[in-house]
């Protein structure tokens, strides 16, 4: 054996990840808000975060999804509670089959079976915030 003391093993720090462009705020916040969405009945949180892409700009401007209520121990056949601006409620009611079809095709299965239309008056509440 040699008389020189052994060097302790050097700590290898993991390589830092660098991005060419800054990360978007929605990418940073999504892992934090998913548990809140699930608590509010949005297990399918994409209905809330991508509502405009699902139903289109015109319909998204006058509607806001609030919560999803599923039958006990099921993840299909749910009811989507939807806040709708006053006069647009009739239009939403008449286009309910198309909205349900768009949601099903976007998610890949029929998670929502019906819409519960809630009249919002002249202003829409923030998404995910119902009356308490």
List segments where confidence is low: pLDDT < 50 over at least 5 consecutive residues. 128-132
Task: Classify the beta-strand content into a percent band.
Answer: 15-25%
Strand order within the widest sheet? 1-2-3
Report the count of strand segments: 3
Binned, the helix content reads 25-40%
> Mind describing the biggest β-sheet?
3 strands, mixed
| CATH topology annotation of the domain at 53-126 | GMP Synthetase, Chain A, domain 3
N/C terminus separation: 76 Å
> What is the structural class?
alpha+beta
Q: CATH class of the domain at 53-126, anyone? A: Alpha Beta
* CATH A-level architecture of the domain at 53-126: 2-Layer Sandwich
- The Rg value, from CA coordinates, equals 23 Å
Count of DSSP H/I helices: 6
- Please state the average pLDDT score: 80
Shape call:
elongated
Write structural notes for this entry.
By secondary structure, the chain is α+β, with helices and mostly antiparallel strands. The protein has a domain at 53-126: GMP Synthetase, Chain A, domain 3, CATH 3.30.300. The protein has helices at 25-39, 46-49, 51-55, 57-60, 89-94, 96-107; strands at 63-69, 78-84, 112-119. The longest helix has 15 residues, at 25-39. Residues 128-132 have low confidence and may be disordered.
